[in-house]
Specification:
The protein is of the alpha+beta class and 255 residues long. It has a single domain, classed as Glutaredoxin (3-Layer(aba) Sandwich). The protein contains 10 helices and 10 strands.
Length: 255
């Protein structure tokens, strides 16, 4: 966690509190049970041609559970990640694995990847709103940029921590605009295709921030208690290192 605020973040004027911070970044839960048997394929899955005029990496859909899925929706292997945009373990996984994940596995049509942003720290709320602010096709690219520049964003967050905490007391339509400004998010995303004006408009829409927090509560109620939490074809994968995940994907037939 790069700065500390109350674990309960009041998100409505009626003082209804939506709980953030009940999950932990990188926390291992050895008692967590997988939802089935790990997927193993004796033979590799064949490549699947993408739609005409597109690559599979350009096929992006928003999912009913608040995620964004990239790749072949009918891929034989489906990877799901619950990740916090302020979690260093999630950033490390992305830094180590996204190049191969997108450049080889998703591009082949053998694998789809869904990312669900799980707000476990207050700064995750404006970060999530900002990566969702552009077209759906830009979502995962912006997530990748957050993780690729994780140290830079972390330093800015630490520097602006006091202002960011004070921003949480502002009226709803100002709260996350001010918080994002305190930690340098408008300028960061403006360099990546989301103009300052566009970003501020998204952040001023309180319903967007409220939805991020509500999804975090829903994920927690489903038993997601750490980030990153990974599933391969609906089977929970308990490790978070790219080398382990890569081996599991290969065993599932993405090879």
């Amino acid at each position: 966690m790069t700065f500390r605020v109350a674990r309960r973040l009041a998100l409505t004027t009626a003082a209804v509190a939506l709980t953030l911070g009940l999950a932990s970044c990188g926390k291992e839960d050895p008692s967590a049970a997988a939802s089935g048997t790990p997927i193993v394929s004796a033979t590799p899955h064949a490549n699947v041609p993408p739609p005409a005029g597109k690559t599979w990496v350009e096929v992006v859909e928003e999912t009913p559970d608040g995620g964004y899925r990239v790749g072949n929706p009918n891929a034989p292997v489906k990877l799901l990640e619950y990740g916090s945009l302020s979690c260093p373990h999630c950033a490390k996984l992305a830094q180590d694995g996204f190049k191969k994940l997108f450049g080889e596995y998703i591009a082949s049509g053998r694998l789809s990847f869904e990312f669900r942003s799980f707000a476990i720290h207050p700064q995750d709320v404006p970060l999530t709103v900002m990566v969702q602010c552009g077209p759906k096709e830009s979502y995962v690219n912006l997530v990748e940029q957050v993780y690729a520049n994780f140290d830079e964003l972390g330093a800015a967050t630490q520097k602006g921590a006091q202002q960011a905490e004070a921003a949480l007391t502002l009226p709803e339509n100002q709260r996350f605009v001010a918080m994002a400004q305190a930690i340098g998010l408008p300028e960061f995303f403006a360099q990546r295709g989301i103009s300052v004006e566009q970003g501020k408009a998204c952040l001023a829409d309180f319903n967007k921030s409220k939805k991020v927090a509500e999804l975090a509560n829903a994920y927690g109620e489903k038993g997601i208690n750490s980030t990153p939490t990974l599933f391969i074809n609906d089977v929970r994968f308990e490790k978070t290192d790219w080398n382990d995940l890569d081996a599991a994907l290969k065993a599932a037939g993405v090879r």
